[in-house]
Design a protein that fits this description.
8-stranded mixed beta sheet; 38 strands; alpha/beta
Length: 647
Amino acid sequence: MDLTWPFAESPSSDEDAPDPSPPQRHVWLRLLSTTDIHAHLLPFDYDRNTEVSDFGLARTATLIEEARAQAPQTLLFDNGDFLQGTPISDVVALETCTGESCHPVINAMNSLGYAAVGLGDHEFNFGLDWLGHALAKAHFKVVCANVVTELSPEGPTQDTLLHPPFALIDVPVRDSEDRPENLTLGVIGFVPPQVTTWDHTHLHGRAHARDIVEAAHAHVPVLRAKGADIVIALAHTGISPGDPHPGMENAALALAGVDGIDAIIAGHAHEVFPDPSLAVQRRTKWTDIDHRRGTLGGVPAVMAGYRGSHLGVLDLQLTKSGGVWRVRKHKSQARPVQPAGAPATPPAPALCALAQPAHSATLDRNAMTLGYATQPMHSYLAQICPSPALGPVLDAQRDALSAALARHPASGLPILSATPPFRTGGHAGPRAYTDIPAGPLVMRHLGDLYPFPNTLVGLKLTGADIFDWLERAASCFHQMSPRLRCQPLWNAAFAGHAFDTISGVTYQIDLTSPARYDPEGRLRNKNARRIIDLRLDDAPLSHAQEVLLATNSFRAFGGGPYKWTTPYDVVHRGKHRIKDLLADHLRTTNECPSDTARSWSFLPVEGSSALVETGPGLRDYPEDIARIGATDLGDTEAGFMRLDIPL
C-alpha cells in the first residue's frame, strides 16, 4: 500500500512542521484550471501578426494532457473571461456564429473536457442574448452565483439567477487502499459585482449583481446541504489584501473566510498565485496571502495568469471522518507554458487543427487595408506624455458623437473626447504595448489601438466635471518632490487604462500635489488639485461651462476610478462598437494620426526626475527617447525598460 504523495513533489500540510503520523485512508484529487483565456486559442499575437511562445490555450492543452497523465483523478475548470479578447471571438465569431454553429472557443473547451466553468465580467461584453447562444453549445456546466435577473428582498437564495449558482459533480474515485468512493464535488461561481457597471449598456434593466462574499455566505450552505462533500469556488476575482468591504472587485482573500469553501480557483487580475518568486518569503506583510503554501487565509488557492500563460494545478489529499470529507493536505502550482530558461511547451496539434478555420478567417480579415499612418503610433510613453496612438480613437469618438447629435439641442456645445491608452505593459508584460509603424494601416491594427468591445457614450457635462475627470486620471501618479532624482512615477495600484487623456482642451498636471483620489475612485484628499491651467479654445475653462464629452461605455458608467454618470448627463448611447467607429474613421480620413492627443504636459518640478518602466520596444524610437531627455537605465528582471526622465 503506497501512501506517499503521488504527484512528484511533497504537499503542504495544515501546519508548517511535517506530520510524522502515517496518513489515514484518503483520496487524491487533482483540480486543473485556466483563467482569463480571453479567446487566445493559439499561440499567436494578432496585433503583431506573429507567433508567440509564452501563451495560448493550445500550449496549455499540452500541460493539461501531461498533468492528467500524472494523477489518477483529475477535473478541469475555467473561472471566466474565456470568450472575449482576440479577433477570433470579438470579430469573426461575433459575425459568423449564428444558427447551429459553435463558437470556436466553446468548441476548443469542449474538446479539452472541461467539467465546469464560471463566468467572467468579459463574458457579458456582447450582451445576454449572444452569451446565451455561445454557451448553448457548451458540454460543460456553467455557474454564476451573484449575477441575477431579479433581486429578492428575502436574500440571495431567493434571487432569480441568470445561470445556476452552483453545480454538483459526482466523481467516482479510489482511495489509498484501492477501495471505491463516490465523491460529490460542489462548484460555485462568482464574478466582480462591477460587471453591471462595466457592461451597463447590455445589462441595464436585465441583470443585477450581488456582492461576492454576500452571495457566498448564502449559497455555500445550500450547496453543502444538497450533498457537496468538497466545495470549490470558481472565483473570477483577484487577491486584494486588507480588510474586506462590500462590493469588492478583488475578493478572493475575503472569500476564503466563508465557512464551507475548501479551495479557491481565482482569476480576473491576470496574476499568478502562488508565485514561486515570492514563495521564498516565509512571512510577508500580508500573512493571509501565503505563496509558499499556496493558501489564501489558510484555504488552498491557485491563479493561472492569463491568455493560457499557465495551468493551475491544485492537488488535494482528502480524508473522511464521521462521514465528512476534508482537505488534509494540498499542493498548489501555476505551471507556466514557458518556464524560465527552458523551451516553450509545444502546442497541442489537435487543438491547433480545431482552431485553424477560425484562425484563417481571422488572418484574412486582419489583412484588409484601412488607411495610412503618416508616423509611428506607440504607447510606450503614453503615461508620460501625449501619445499619437490615442489620436485616431479620440478623433473617431468626437466625429461619431458630432454626427449622432447633429439635430440634438446640445449640438452647438464644444465636443471633447476622452480615452486611455489600453496597452501599457503591467501584468501583461513588456511586449504589451501598442506599436504600429508608419505605413499602411490594416484591420489587425484596430485591436492594437482599441482592444475592447465598448460602445460610444456622449455626456453633457460642465467644466467642473471635466476638472474632476482629469483629477481622477492624474491620481494615477505618485507625488513628486523637488530636487529628488529617479522617483517612481506610476502608482502600480492603478490599472494602466485608468489614465484618460481628454482632447479638445489643454492642461498641465502638477505632480507636487498629492493625489485627490485612490485607485477605487474614493476621495482621498479633498484639498488636492493636480490639474492646472485647463483651457478651452485658449481661454480658461470655467466650472459652469457646458461641454459634450465622447467616451466609452465602460468609463461612462463608472469603470475604473471614475464616477457613475447620471442618466441626465447621457445625451447619446451608441449601439456600435468604438472599434467599428474607428475603422470607419480610418477609412474616411485615410491618413492619421493628427495632433488631437497633444493636449497635456507635466508642470516642471525643479531638479527632479521620474523613474518609469516601459517596453524595450521603445529603443526602436531613439528620437522619442531624446525628445523627453530620458536616460536608459537598462532592463528589469521582468524585461521592462527603465527610464530616468527629467521633470
